[in-house]
Write a structure and sequence with these properties.
Structural class: alpha+beta
Number of strands: 8
Strand content: 5-15%
Distance between the termini: 60 Å
CATH topology of the largest domain: Alpha-Beta Plaits
Number of helices: 10
Strand order of the largest sheet: 1-4
CATH architecture of the largest domain: 2-Layer Sandwich
Shape: flat
Largest sheet: 2 strands, antiparallel
């Protein structure tokens, strides 16, 4: 009996060893070998696989770069350092990269907005937004369930007083949070921005201020105060053109509701907490 067991075990081990050797030989002679240049490019990338470059991940981006089908300055998390290294590997000049960070265009905290309904369902922003825009008084504002935080590759987002806040010191600018937000209130703005609009309400001023005390009322005071014509009112809400902005801050000074505020990145709100 023992002899039969040992014989069967020997056969299994022998077959496994034979197949292992056969597989190793197959990989060595017939396997797909990674291009050396592609490997160097892949090693230079941060490996976050965020997709901000427009490709599925770092591997796809590396292959596209190796074939000359992409620019070396598309890696937002890697920023200028990665772009420079990729340029050296590829032997090409690299255009200067611009640093962007995620910004939540909402300041509708619990003390300035209200809840108009009780929601009992899947506790996600997308789920809540499907029922009459969500239970909050402002149908344009942040719902505070953290869909953006769940997809953030650098743990740079948390919910503070009912709305999402970005730790811009950690933000790598991948834009995943902006894609995940069903309200489209997160955008990528230049890191050098000096002012920002903390609102995205598209209602007329009288209606907007009823649902949020900090809403933009489209009074156009900021438009008139801006010396570089960098601000316009789009769908009843102020919008800043950062290519024109001179960072004077006059728009924030004249804003009557405080939806336009001065900012300085990287910043960290006093009550922002991350592990």
């Amino acid at each position: 009996m023992l002899t039969d067991i040992l014989s069967a075990l020997a056969v299994v081990v022998s077959v496994g060893l034979f197949l292992g050797i056969l597989l190793a030989l197959f990989i060595h002679f017939l396997g797909i070998r990674e291009d050396e240049k592609t490997k160097k490019i892949r090693d230079a990338l941060p490996g976050i696989n965020c997709g901000a470059c427009g490709f599925k991940g770092c591997n796809d981006y590396a292959e596209a770069l190796s074939k000359g089908n992409a620019k070396p300055n598309l890696c937002i998390p890697g920023a200028e350092a990665t772009a420079k290294e990729l340029g050296e590997i590829l032997g090409v000049e690299v255009e200067q990269t611009k640093d962007f960070i995620a910004f939540v265009h909402c300041n509708g905290t619990c003390d300035v907005t209200s809840t108009t309904a009780i929601y009992d369902g899947v506790d996600t922003c997308r789920g809540r937004s499907m029922i009459y825009g969500g239970p909050k008084s402002c149908r344009y504002g942040c719902l505070g369930c953290g869909d953006c935080a769940k997809v953030c590759v650098s743990d740079a987002i948390c919910i503070v007083d009912g709305i999402a806040r970005v730790n811009t010191d950690r933000c790598v600018g991948c834009g995943m949070c902006a894609k995940a937000c069903p309200k489209n209130i997160i955008s990528m703005i230049p890191q050098h921005a000096a002012t920002a609009v903390f609102c995205c309400n598209k209602d007329k001023g009288a209606d907007a201020i009823k649902v949020c005390k900090r809403a933009c009322i489209a009074c156009r005071k900021c438009v008139k105060a801006c010396p570089s014509e960098a601000i316009s009112i789009v769908d009843n809400c102020a919008v800043i053109d950062y290519t024109k902005c001179t960072e004077c801050g006059l728009c924030a000074e004249v804003c009557p509701t405080g939806c336009l505020q001065k900012v300085c990145f990287p910043d960290l709100p006093d009550n922002f907490s991350l592990n």
